[in-house]
Design brief:
Layout lengths: L2 H8 L8 E5 L5 E4 L33 H8 L4 E4 L6 E5 L4 E5 L2 E8 L4 E4 L2 E4 L2 H8 L4 E3 L2 E6 L2 E8 L4 E9 L4
């Protein structure tokens, strides 16, 4: 199955109203994904994707220091130092991991099992319908997921298309790509 179509099916399905017109000039798929109704209480009742600036995820910003993360989230369950990159370490919190580079947050990773993610203070259920309603159509489609960009900030939704589910969500600056 074409990965673009599979992604569209996961994020709302292609129906008689949907279509696939092949890639656009920038290489992204030209997929018309129909809007879906979502009844999750954790998501506002109307799409709010234009309001998101990606300034924080789960209360953490990409400008937070080690101290700021510990002040916000508490002592991590584990801290792992990268064996190959000096100054890079990961703070494990069970429901998410926070990567630090030279003492500043460089990436957050939230497993789908966390159930929800707070984007700019708005709690969103980690499922295709809620993510699509909250963030709208992705800015980029990668082989392993969908990427949403607001300025220099990115949120990537990793997908397991075969199982029709999200596996994790990451938050990172464009400079880390």
């Amino acid at each position: 199955m074409n990965r673009w179509i599979a992604t569209a099916v996961l994020f709302g399905g292609l129906t008689a109203a949907g279509s696939y017109a092949g890639p656009t000039a920038d290489g992204n798929p030209a997929v018309d994904i129909p809007k879906t109704e979502v009844s999750h209480a954790s998501v506002v009742s109307r799409p709010v994707h234009k309001a998101f600036t990606f300034q924080s995820v789960n209360g953490v910003t990409l400008e937070d220091t080690r101290r700021g993360v510990v002040d916000k989230l508490g002592i991590p369950a584990d801290i792992t130092k990268d064996p190959f990159l000096t100054g890079v370490e990961t703070y494990e919190y069970g429901y998410m991991s926070v990567d630090m580079d030279q003492g500043t947050v460089s990436r957050l990773s939230i497993p789908a099992e966390a159930g929800t993610v707070a984007i700019d203070g708005v709690e969103v259920a980690i499922n295709p319908e809620s993510i699509r309603q909250a963030l709208g159509n992705p800015d980029y489609t990668a082989e392993d997921g969908l990427v949403y960009q607001r300025g220099e900030m990115l949120i990537k939704v990793y997908l397991n298309v075969a199982e029709s589910r999200i596996t994790r969500i990451t938050y990172y600056p464009m400079s880390n790509t």
